[in-house]
Amino acid sequence: MKISRDDNVVELTGPPVFNYGEKVKSLKTVRNDGTFPGREVGDILVKKGDCGYVTSIGSFLQQFYIYGIEFVEYGYRVGMRGKELESLEPNRAPVEEYLE
């Protein structure tokens, strides 16, 4: 497995883009990379357009925020990067404005 580090980006220097409980939409299809228990590598976990809620905020590689998104429809949580999500809350600026 190859990990893309986006070497020039260090999100942890600023606050998280999303807040606990915020409703978000997936901007991409997410497949199991082997870190999701009970599912085969390559299985689709989240489809583009699926909606969920931020239930945790962590970090990865001391560089990126990882948001635990609870997809109520599926009954499980998936860790996603901010650039993979869009807020469904009214009056929110686009993610790109927070990541610059």
Structural class by helix and strand composition: mainly beta
CATH topology description: SH3 type barrels
Radius of gyration: 13 Å
Specify the helix fraction band. Answer: under 10%
Which oligomeric state applies?
A: single chain
Strand percent estimate = 35-45%
Sheet with the most strands: spatial strand order:
6-5-4-1-7
Main beta sheet, described? 5 strands, antiparallel
CATH class: Mainly Beta
CATH architecture: Roll
Order of helices and strands: EEEEEEEH
Shape: globular
Could you walk me through the main structural features you see in this protein, from its secondary elements to its overall organization?
It contains 1 helix and 7 strands; from the N terminus they run βββββββα. Strands 6-5-4-1-7 form a 5-stranded antiparallel β-sheet, with no helix packed on it. It has one domain: SH3 type barrels.
What order do the helices and strands come in, and which of them pair?
Blueprint: E1 23-26, E2 30-31, E3 44-46, E4 51-60, E5 64-71, E6 76-81, E7 85-87, H1 95-99
Antiparallel strand pairs: 1-4, 1-7, 2-3, 4-5, 5-6
Write a brief caption for the model.
It is built from one helix and seven strands; from the N terminus they run E-E-E-E-E-E-E-H. With 100 residues, the chain is mostly beta strands.
Features:
five-stranded antiparallel β-sheet, single chain, about 5% helix, about 100 residues, two-stranded antiparallel sheet, mainly beta, SH3 type barrels
